[in-house]
Amino acid sequence: MDENEQRLFDSWKNNASSWTRAIRNQQIESRVLVTNSAILETVIELNPKTFLDVGCGEGWLCRELFSKGIDGWGVDASGELIEAARQEGDTRFLVSLYSDLTSHKFGDTVHFSCLICNFSILGQRDVAYIASAGHSLLKKQGKIIVQTLHPIIACGDAAYTSGWRETAWHLIGNETFHPAPWYFRTVESWIEEFHARNYRLLKLREPCHLVTNKPISIIFVFEQQ
Ligand SMILES: C[S@@+](CC[C@H](N)C(=O)[O-])C[C@H]1O[C@@H](n2cnc3c(N)ncnc32)[C@H](O)[C@@H]1O
Fold first, then answer.
1. Alpha carbon nearest to ligand 1 atom 13, residue
2. Which residues touch 90 (CB under 8 Å, ≥6 apart)?
3. Inter-residue contact 27 to 173 (CB < 8 Å)
4. Residue 126 to residue 140: CA distance in whole angstroms
């Protein structure tokens, strides 16, 4: 693991309890107003039988999908976040790095309809790990659904090129956040990286802020070839 990846994991370990409170107390306005429903609608439109929530955090998206009768699992590197997810009553959560996804058993599910990555692809090598795992874990023509900050907005004043960035913020909602490095990708490189690994872009959405009408996030639906 390189230094940026190690700092990223350490940061999510440190942020686990404040992240859990921020999500459960609905402190992140863009999520409450736009991005939570955008990812849910995108997944549900695809009518999946099963899903793997990759980087599930404290598990809110799994719980929403379970409540709609869709079977699935959540995985995350943070033992604290997985514990917080299980404490809500469901056992379909596992500690795993993206690099280890294929080494687990997910109950009776061998092949998933989709992998969902909701704001959880943060490292440089994550696309490679997840795309590669998808070729073993997805059904034929399975989907990888990625929601991330919209690159045009997230880029800020820096040059529009892919590369490691530092988070500038120290709060999530009202909670303290230990900053972490994250790997910025342009729209072109998101698409190219998946295309290079035998997925093709099926759909792209740009959910916008309800007042400013600026894009908050981008959602890619890639289909395995
Ligand atoms: C911004 S949070 C998003 C959590 C969740 N998807 C949500 O929408 O609330 C990013 C999550 O990705 C996880 N994560 C990041 N890189 C990871 C990796 N390489 N392996 C496993 N989990 C990872 C972190 O532990 C963290 O829980």
1. 55
2. 59, 62, 63, 66
3. yes
4. 22
Q: How many domains does the chain have?
A: 1
Distance of alpha carbon 111 from alpha carbon 143, whole angstroms? 11
Summarize the confidence of residues 148-167 as an average pLDDT.
94
Report the percentage of the chain scoring pLDDT > 70: 99
CB of 72 within 6 A of ligand 1: the answer is no
Ligand 1 close to Cβ of residue 126 (< 6 A): yes
Q: Which candidate, 99, 117, 104, places its Cα nearest to that of 43?
A: 117
Which residue has the least CA distance to atom 20 on ligand 1? 97
User: Range of 210's domain?
Assistant: 3-224
62 lines ligand 1 (CB under 6 A): no
Query: Which candidate, 118, 81, 125, 124, places its Cα nearest to that of 100?
Result: 125
- Ligand 1 atom nearest 53 alpha carbon: 6
Q: Is the pLDDT of residue 170 over 80?
A: no
Question: How many angstroms does the Cα of residue 209 sit away from the middle of ligand 1?
Answer: 23
Q: Give just the sign of the alpha carbon dihedral 181, 185, 191, 194.
A: negative
Q: Please give the model's pTM, rounded to 2 decimal places.
A: 0.97
74 touches ligand 1 (CB under 6 Å): no
CATH code assigned at 183: 3.40.50.150
Residue 95 pairs with which residues in a beta bridge?
76
Would the pLDDT of 200 be above 80?
yes
* Helix axes 36-45 and 60-67, enclosed angle (nearest 10): 40
